[in-house]
Amino acid sequence: MTQPTTIRRVPGPRPRLPEPLRTALELAATGVPVLPLRQGKVPLGNCRTCAHNGCGGRPNMKSAGPCRRPGVCHAWAAANTDPAVLTSPAWKAAWRRVVTVAYHPGAAGLTVVDLDNAAAVAWARETLPTTRAVETTRGEHWIYRGAMASRNAVRPGVDVKSTLSYARYLGPGTGTLTALPDAVRALAVKEPAKARPAPHAVAAPAPAGNGPCPHRTPAYLDRGIAMVEQRITDARSAVHTTVYRTFLAVLSTHGRCGCLTDAHIARLFTVAQAKGETLRHYTDAWTNARTRLGL
Predict the structure, then answer these.
(1) Residue 132 contacts residue 143 (beta carbons within 8 Å)
(2) Average pLDDT over residues 241-249
(3) Could you read off the pLDDT of 44-98 as tens digits, one per residue?
(4) What was the pLDDT predicted at 202?
(5) C-alpha triplet 11, 13, 19: angle, nearest 5°
């Protein structure tokens, strides 16, 4: 994430740009996709048109295209390097009300190890190869050259942010970029789940794997997913609690029969993100619901 050595200036008076937008344009000129963050340091959520992938772009939020809506949408996947997009009327309005600038590390070929406190920084200095470091409010961002899967809470106070994630831009930092080491890649590898002891008495039927749903018809499942989406969309408070409870309700009925597909799960995750839930929040809600049900 190197800074350009020179920035060409256009002769004559220049319109005054909001400070976040000026920073974003300078960063985008280096090839790093940027996006605005609102209060709470979170991305802007999906608009109603793009919720549930209604616009036909960014399936399952796994890419930064091809949606071409004029507004700032799709949360972190809106990250862009095109100055014409970043300075469009809709984006200019967003820059005026945001609090800071973020970027999509994976799309720039980077990985950020987010060290959230002094203990995490001390661990990194003893464990990881040195690289470019950026000071944060409570710790440091260590930036490596190379992209990988993102994963939060890989150890106390440590998150890995690369693909399908965003990081705040807090300055160019100090030090030289180092190639992404195996020690960092290993942090995102999940340990195999430990086998759960069989309960003494089981009231529910055993998991049916990929068999047909023994409780309801597929049409009922589709209606249920739609009702859950609407319930999350209509939430006016306690959004995280609503997301967790609705995930729990879906999994309690259909979590053991294998009828939930990736498409169903993607719909639930997309509507949660549209309400402002972060990747960490809605994946934690899903994991906690599965754990509570013993799935």
Answers:
(1) yes
(2) 83
(3) 777 777 765 556 544 444 444 445 666 777 777 788 899 998 998 888 888 888 8
(4) 32
(5) 110
Range in 142-151, 154-163, 213-222 with the lowest mean pLDDT: 213-222
The residue length of the chain stands at 295
Distance between CA atoms of residues 73 and 69, nearest Å? 8
What's the average model confidence in pLDDT over 163-184?
93
Please name the amino acid found at residue 214: P
Looking up tokens 């040195």, which residue turns up? 130
- pLDDT at 137 exceeding the cut of 60: yes
Inter-axis angle of helices 89-97 and 19-28, to 10 degrees?
A: 120
Residue 131: C-alpha distances to residues 140, 212, 264 (Å): 11, 51, 40
Given a cut of 50, whether residue 236 has pLDDT beyond it is: yes
